[in-house]
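Ticket opened by: R.M.
Priority: normal
Category: complex prediction / small molecule

The reporter submitted a protein together with flavin-adenine dinucleotide and asked that the result be attached to this ticket for the collaborator who will pick it up next week. Submitted input follows.
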Amino acid sequence: MYKIVKREEMAHKTIILNEIEAPQIAKKAKPGQFVMLIADETGERIPLTMAEVDKEKGTITIIYMIIGKSTRLFSTLKVGEGYKDIVGPLGQPTHIEKKGTVVCVGGGTGTAVLHPITRGMYEAGNRVISIVGARNTDYIIMRDQMAAASDELRICTDDGSEGRHGFVTDELREVLENNEVAEVVAIGPVPMMKFVSLLTKEYNVPTTVSLNPIMIDGTGMCGGCRVTIGGKTKFACVDGPEFDGHQVDYDGLMRRLQAYRVEEEHSDNCMFEREA
Amino acid sequence: MTYEVDAKYLTKKERRAIPRQAMPEQAANIRNKDFSEVTLGFGLLEAQYEAARCIQCKDPACVAGCPVGINIPGFLEQIVEGDLHGAIKTVWDKTALPAVCGRVCPQEIQCEEVCVVGKKKGRESVGIGNLEMFIADWARDTGVSNEVEIPPKTGKKIAVVGSGPAGITVAGDLAIKGHEVTIYEAFHRAGGVLLYGIPEFRLAKDIVDYEIEQLKSLGVNIVCNTVVGRTVDVDELIDEMGYDAVFIGVGAGLPNFLNIPGEDLNGVFSANEYLTRANLMKAFDFPKYDTPIIPGKNVAILGAGNVAMDAARTAVRLGARSVSIVYRRTKEQSPSRHIEIHHAEQEGVQFKFLTSPLEFIGDANGKLVGINCEKMELGEPDEGGRSRPIPTGEHEYIDCDLAIIAIGTSANPLLTRTTENLELNQWGNIEADTKTGKTTKKGVWAGGDITLGQATVILAMGMGRDAANSIDAYLKGEEW
Ligand SMILES: Cc1cc2nc3c(=O)[nH]c(=O)nc-3n(C[C@H](O)[C@H](O)[C@H](O)COP(=O)(O)OP(=O)(O)OC[C@H]3O[C@@H](n4cnc5c(N)ncnc54)[C@H](O)[C@@H]3O)c2cc1C
Ligand SMILES: Cc1cc2nc3c(=O)[nH]c(=O)nc-3n(C[C@H](O)[C@H](O)[C@H](O)COP(=O)(O)OP(=O)(O)OC[C@H]3O[C@@H](n4cnc5c(N)ncnc54)[C@H](O)[C@@H]3O)c2cc1C
Ligand code: SF4
Ligand code: FES
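Result attached by the on-call engineer:
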């Protein structure tokens, strides 16, 4: 068992943080990599990015939004309990180097995934401008950590309860207009990454996005995570999860994410009923 | 058949008159709805009569036909004599996994193809595979295990990467020689393709688990959730973790796709994904198990090997209305075990031979609705003597909401890309000496599908055994 040593709730309990003992994985993990977790004997394999790694303590931290059966099950695990299986680190680490000004754009839980990359970019000597967006101020996560890892942190909310009243793309356009930007890293819901990429294409700024297709093994043996990048099929778990945002077929990705909608809802309902 | 006379008292003539004993099976219309094993296994008397059909050749062709050279006439006669302990020992002498081999070996192109009894007109070869299954099941059921005297600990440590048949064999053989062995497996359970690929109805997972427990009882340490090349590297195993030798048996896990339009539609799967969901993750028992699977109403399987048959028969059991195997060559050219085709036919699977997929067709939501195919015909034989299918220009549309691609797998580059000095061939398979399994990297051996490309259980097992002998010799001081 992989023991949970710390648990936090964020954004009105819709987002959960778990710090977990996994020394072997912590030792090797790099920003941008993910793990696959199984809660219990009947559980499925769920991919989550490592938002934090403490190599000395031998722990990894995951931050996830509760959206379906498995993440709901994860959210019931308490400190001292744990996951039956965790495997990793998987995927290619983020390519971090000093490039100049880097803009990191995070939406929803994507911000958790973005944080270690932002910090890496910052520590590599880049000037980092971060733009974080959410529904309203209560759903902005990791505000302090993002601020500490950025030269400038800008917030956007859909309802204007904090920062700019509007989308991250509005803020990003302003930044692109007024700065010489070397790279944009965008992580969040698929539509957000799509529109960020369309925008940065206008300005010809290289853009990295992190894709979250459905995965089974996470090691390249099933092809379930295949995404189309520049017209070619790639396996997100081994070739990604980060890709050139201008090459991604976002519509295809959104379609594939719906593949099990009916089954997932059924499964989640069953769990709901069991809990009730 | 009545078994009035004890088989060992039958005369030679009487022995020759015995017909091949049919393997008892679940009825097709019952088994096509559940996942329990199709074959039920011989009883003792059936087994003894079947074994008595062997004419005990002086120079047995079957032994030469078996990739690992099991003393087939030997164990068959022991079964006839009622010496079941002796029979299983004879089998274990050459294979670590007889319960598996008996069930999944392509006997009809190995031992049974060359069996002299089957050469006579109107006669069938001895059912060697069925007897191997019988004796292995008998041993498991009665708790007889391969009791060996384990010599004192040698103090040498070996890391085995991958827990498929190759890795299992290496680990068992080296543990028996007194070495300390640890298996590293990427998945959360050990067994390789035996677990995640070959379905329960063909190879019960209890059998695989039993073999893994046997390994543990020999002192083999099994560490799951470890992707070598990610969680640890081969060099770390040697330099930092103190392993004296490493065996790589990671299989051929990378699914091939057809590279035709529409392959990213929902409803198009690799067989690896479909079977992993169904077998390893137990999606057939959804929602008790959390992993979902699309059951499919009309299912098309592309390819006609063992993997294709497994996928087709899984789809049948998950409740599909129609399941078709679509293959661009002919039935005779199918690389599947014949019995699998036969079982698939019995269970209602349809076959479309000389049919080649051109394009997957989807609806407005990106869901698969059908496949455009082209009819083929057989052309002139190529150098290998195999006729190539050539397009006729005539098209056929196949209605389906689920398509499973089963056209083979290649080497997964995850480990090899992260390991220096490990030479690969043009297909990305590890170059290894065919006799010893030695790779181009000192202290590292490889075997099974990662060296052969997708092959068979018995070949993986055989290579594992050769590698174990070579590793043992090296650890006892033989030159690299
Ligand atoms: C590399 C990678 C890193 C990720 N990192 C994070 C993270 O740090 N934080 C976070 O909140 N989420 C992350 N995700 C998404 C997360 O894996 C899914 O939210 C989770 O699997 C949903 O499972 P569920 O059973 O709770 O929901 P379900 O009811 O199963 O699914 C709801 C939706 O989630 C998606 N989904 C379902 N199963 C999977 C699967 N196996 N893999 C990917 N998506 C799936 C589909 O869009 C589905 O419609 C990541 C995904 C990937 C591929
Ligand atoms: C559906 C199907 C049906 C088949 N039917 C038959 C049949 O009827 N008869 C027959 O003889 N053969 C059959 N085969 C082929 C046979 O199963 C294989 O030839 C055999 O299993 C190969 O054994 P192996 O030990 O080389 O590898 P595998 O059985 O593939 O095992 C390799 C193991 O290594 C693990 N691994 C991979 N990468 C890593 C890594 N980086 N780190 C750690 N672990 C790793 C994998 O998870 C896996 O558990 C079938 C194959 C499939 C897929
Ligand atoms: S291991 Fe395979 S080839 Fe050898 S005797 Fe058994 S069934 Fe035949
Ligand atoms: S998750 Fe199976 S290949 Fe990527």
